[in-house]
Amino acid sequence: MNRLPKETKKDLKEEAKEWDRTIAQESPEHVQKMLDQAESFKIPRPPRQPVSIRLDPFDIAMAKRIARRKGVPHTQLMATWLHERIEREKGVSPN
User: Fold this and answer.
1) pTM
2) Is the Cβ–Cβ distance between 65 and 72 less than 8 Å?
3) What are phi and psi of 89, to 5 degrees?
4) Is 65 exposed, middle or buried (0-12, 13-18, 19+ CB in 10 A)?
5) For the chain, what is the mean pLDDT?
6) CA 91 to CA 85: how far, in whole Å?
7) Neighbour-count burial for 22-54, b at 16+ CB within 10 Å, e otherwise
8) How buried is 83 (Cβ within 10 angstroms: 0-12 exposed, 13-18 middle, 19+ buried)?
C-alpha cells in the first residue's frame, strides 16, 4: 500500500477527532429520532458474469507436483489453486 503524505495523515486524524467530538455530543434520543426519519434504500446487485479460464498444461503439472510433495490429493489442491486463480482473474485479492 502506498504511504500517505504526513499532511494527509494529519488531516485524516483531525477529521476523525472532529467526528468523535460530534458523535459524543449527540444524545440517544436525537439519534433515535434521526434513525426513525431515515429512508431505507436498496441497491440492485449486478448480474453474475460467468468466468472461463483455460488451464495451461504447465500449471496443471506444477499443481500436481506440489500436491505430490505435500501428500495432498491433487484434485483437492487443484480446487484450491483454481479458486485462487479465479479470484486473481476477477481482480479480487484472496486475503
Assistant:
1) 0.34
2) no
3) -65, -35
4) exposed
5) 81
6) 10
7) eeeeeeeeeeeeeeeeeeeeeeeeeeeeeeeee
8) exposed
- What the block records as the C-alpha cell of 16 is 476523525
Q: Show contacts of 90-94: CB within 8 Å, 24+ apart.
A: 90/51
pLDDT digits (tens, 9 = 90+) for 23-54: 888 888 988 998 899 888 888 888 888 877 77
Q: Output the CA torsion 11→18→20→12 (10° steps).
A: -10
Q: How far is CA 18 from CA 7, 28, 29, 30, 78, in A?
A: 17, 19, 21, 19, 50
Grid cell locating 68: 505430490
- For residues 82-88, average pLDDT: 79
Give the position of cell 495523515.
Answer: 9
Amino acid of residue 50: P
Determine the residue type at 11.
D
